[in-house]
Design a protein that fits this description.
With 781 residues, the protein is α+β, with helices and mostly antiparallel strands. It has three domains: 177 residues, Aldehyde Oxidoreductase, domain 3 (Alpha-Beta Complex); 331 residues, Aldehyde Oxidoreductase, domain 4 (2-Layer Sandwich); 129 residues, 2-Layer Sandwich (Aldehyde Oxidoreductase, domain 4), CATH 3.30.365.10. It has 15 helices and 31 strands. The strands form eight sheets. Strands 3-7-1-14-11-12-13 form a seven-stranded mixed β-sheet. A six-stranded mixed β-sheet has the order 9-17-16-15-10-31. It has a four-stranded mixed β-sheet with strand order 18-26-27-30, sandwiched between helices. Strand 11 and strand 12 form a beta hairpin. The radius of gyration is 28 Å and the shape is globular.
Length: 781
């Protein structure tokens, strides 16, 4: 045995004092680990696909194999007669509203007369075995009359109506300043953004259980349970009180996460059979049915003076909503509002449209609208720099906005907007070593270790991008959230219907209560629709609104706790403080524990948080539509094989304004994840279609970035300038790096190749230099 001793088991010598055990750090500003981290890593976290119930039936959905067709006949008799089949439901079996949708209720639960996209549900089956359900779905006889699909959004304006509501969902004609203004220098560009899929790790799943009162409970990974409950109740023809949505574990969400059609099918089958019904979607179904990022076509014209100061921006933005509206009107508002980027632009003429096609459905996804226009306006800034002979960072520096400047919507930027500071931080950050500077290190060529390229064909490019997003809802959306905080003994409980989607709300809620009440053990209750609504989990709203509600409730409990003590000692509650579970007065006269002060009582309080109101954009695209904004700067260093067009992103340097850091480790993880998702949109993620037919709807045909694709992500600067109207002064952090990263990658590839790079994801042929001449290998461009 060696002479060393494990410090964890060592016994101190006699007479040697044992140092006190320090309590684990807690509260705001601490990297508190996630409460469910252990369960997720050990595989015991309860996802929807893991659920079970006695008497369980299995569901399957028949989906359209065509992007557009008229349903001539639908015969379910053969399917219904199969042994083990308990129910078959179609459009005729929907007792309530036939239409549903996140924004506009224009999507049928089941197609009735016409299918409008590949994968649209036509019928659902419940059977005693999943294979039986799938066989029954295949046995349904559908006669189609094929119709020519409209898949080019540019043709949607002149095409016959694809929907009773028409093809145009929304048109925003923004006018700001003088539309006749011109600059001495003008550059134009055409940009195309592909269809990025959320590609959740866990495909959609759910369980519906009938209730004795004739209602139904739906267990699913919903990110907005109250909205889903209301959709379901309307479709089932029930009062909302008779439909309950219980949120199961959400395996990460970068969009709406759930296809509401799955929940509606499950509920109808459970009500019809009187039995619990479960559905676990296949990966193919997941790709076909949930919402994707809007494919977008953008035409831009930038005007500037001879010094590079922007004079006017003209743009046309066309967003492909797919077959139904979903949140396309909201995405278009963001795209038009942020079309000029975080720059001072005195004049703007922007036309934005969202149209229906027969392509897969589009909807909410991180940074919707803002990501597409960021790729375009940053491409324009690179073109303007090249035209004027300026460095890409310099043209941006001359035009960045600051607090007090105006958006092209006429709204004043009242929140902190340290864009110049962010740009300076990434510009001054050290550049990564060149291969020639580290000859002993293995240099990964673009294309990976087995890449076929030659080092002599590799060029290095350095690119920049500035991006911005809005936080919370927009255009008059009511962002109220409600939370309850209870304290009993040495344990506190938070009840709030804010869904934990990976953004860290559950951890933040614990930290808020720990900070306010000094109680270390804090539990966050599960979410269901018996609780007051908290809204959907996007745009960082739970950090702001739900976190604000938790803080207010905790402070109300704090007042209840301290008032008796303050009254007893003849002082105000402001003179008492709670630290590490102890209550002390400013003069040291009072010192007691929180548990002693409670004296066996349970204290609780409920509070709401509602940010200041916003307003819809008017007929000229003007209005105070947003509560707050967040900004980001990214410098990308990329190596490009200019003969093969292969790209390796070497490093992404990030500077971001975050308001206040509430959990350092969690914040950095969110930024790194956002950059990686943006990298996927820049280089590989595109759900491809052929005349509306989805090609390879699986994880072999749809490429996602892996650990081998992720570059070195360096967070070089975080600006902690509190937003005074936000609880804690914090800002959302995950969406803005998703928005900014694709534009930065495109900028680096432009620098390496001299090519315009107007399409995302970047195709290899677009990264092939037009001539063999270029920056010598090993020299930064």
């Amino acid at each position: 045995m060696s002479g060393t001793t494990d410090a964890a088991t060592a016994t101190p010598a006699a007479g040697v004092p044992i140092p006190p055990v320090e309590p684990p750090p807690h509260g705001l500003g601490v990297s508190l680990p996630s409460a469910d981290a252990s369960a997720k890593t050990q595989g015991t976290f309860p996802y929807a696909a893991d659920l079970w119930a006695d008497g369980l039936l299995w569901a399957a959905v028949l989906r359209s194999p065509h992007p557009r067709a008229r349903i001539v006949s639908l015969d379910t008799r053969q399917a219904a007669e199969l042994p083990g089949v308990r129910a078959v439901v179609t459009h005729a079996d929907v007792p309530g509203d036939a239409g549903h949708g996140r924004g506009i209720a224009d999507r049928p639960v089941f197609a009735k007369d016409e299918v409008r996209y590949h994968g649209e549900p036509i019928a659902a089956i419940a059977a005693d075995h999943p294979d039986t359900a799938r066989l029954a779905a295949a046995a349904i006889a559908v006669e189609y009359e094929l119709l020519a699909p409209v898949t080019d959004p540019q043709l949607a304006f002149e095409a016959e109506p694809l929907h009773p509501d028409g093809n145009l969902i929304r048109h925003i004609p923004l006018r700001f300043g003088d539309p006749e203004a011109v600059g001495e220098v003008m550059v134009e560009g055409l940009y195309r953004i592909g269809r990025q899929d959320p590609a959740p790790i866990g495909a959609e799943a759910g369980l519906a259980v009938p209730r004795p009162d004739g209602g139904v409970e739906i267990y699913t990974a919903s990110t907005d349970p109250h909205a889903d409950r209301d959709l379901a109740a309307a479709s089932f023809g029930l009062d909302p009180e008779r439909v309950k949505v219980v949120v199961t574990g959400v395996p990460g969400a970068t969009g709406d996460r759930e296809d509401p059609g799955i929940q509606l099918s499950l509920g109808l089958l459970a009500l019809r059979t009187g039995c619990p019904v479960k559905l676990a979607a296949t990966r193919e179904e997941s790709f076909l049915t949930h919402a994707h990022r809007h494919p977008t076509l953008l035409r831009y014209r930038h005007h500037a003076d001879a010094e590079g100061t922007l004079v006017k921006v003209e743009a046309q933005i066309l967003m492909d909503a797919g077959a139904y509206a979903d949140t396309s009107a909201e995405a278009l508002a963001a795209a038009v509002s942020f079309s000029c980027g975080p720059y001072v632009v005195p004049h703007a003429v922007i036309e934005g449209w969202a149209v229906r096609t027969n392509n897969p459905p589009s909807g909410h996804m991180r940074g919707e609208g803002a990501m597409q226009v960021c790729a375009a306006h940053e491409g324009q800034m690179d073109k303007l720099a090249a035209r004027l002979g300026l460095e890409p960072d310099e043209i941006r520096r001359r035009n960045v906005m600051a607090t007090g400047d105006l958006l092209p919507t006429g709204q004043t930027v009242t929140c902190p907007a340290p864009v110049a500071e962010l740009l300076h931080a990434v510009t001054e950050a050290p550049l990564p070593d060149l291969p020639k500077d580290t000859p002993a290190a293995e240099w990964l060529l673009p294309g990976g270790l087995e890449g076929a390229g030659e080092p002599g064909a590799v060029r290095r490019g350095v690119g920049y991008a500035l991006g911005m997003v809005h936080m919370l809802g927009a255009e008059g959306a009511d962002e109220v959230s409600t939370a309850t905080v209870k304290v009993s003994g040495s344990v506190a409980t938070v009840i709030c219907a804010a869904v934990e989607t990976g953004g860290g709300f559950s951890t933040l809620a614990r930290q808020i209560v720990q900070e306010t009440l000094g109680v270390e053990e804090v539990h966050v209750a599960g979410v269901d629709t018996d609780q007051p609504p908290a809204g959907r989990a996007c745009h960082g709203r739970h950090t702001w609104v739900s976190g604000g509600a938790v803080e207010r409730a905790a402070k109300m409990v704090r007042t209840q706790l301290l008032q008796p003590l303050a009254h007893k000692f003849g002082m105000s509650t402001e003179l008492l403080q709670i630290t590490d579970g102890k209550i002390t007065s400013y003069d040291g006269v009072l010192s007691t524990t929180v548990a002693e002060a409670l004296d066996g009582k349970e204290l609780w309080a409920t509070a709401q948080c509602r940010p200041h109101p916003t307003e819809p954009l008017d007929e000229s695209g003007q209005g105070d539509a947003f509560v707050g904004m967040a900004f980001c700067a990214i410098r990308c260093v990329a190596d490009v094989d200019i003969e093969l067009g292969t790209i390796r992103v070497v490093e992404m340097s990030v500077a971001q304004d975050v308001g206040q850091v509430l959990n350092p480790r969690q914040l950095r993880a969110r930024i790194e994840a956002g950059v990686t998702q943006g990298l996927g949109a820049a280089l590989m993620e595109n759900l491809r279609t052929t005349r509306g037919q989805v090609r390879h709807p699986d994880l072999t045909g749809y490429a996602l970035p892996t650990a081998l694709d992720a570059p070195d992500i360096r967070i070089v600067h975080l600006v902690e300038e509190r937003d005074v109207v936000a609880p804690f002064g914090a800002k959302a952090v995950s969406a803005v790096p998703v928005v900014t990263a694709p534009a930065a990658v495109a900028s680096a590839v432009r620098a390496a190749t001299g090519r315009p790079i107007g399409r995302l994801p970047i195709r290899p042929q677009a990264a092939v230099a037009q001539s063999a001449q270029g920056t010598p290998q090993g020299v930064q461009g």
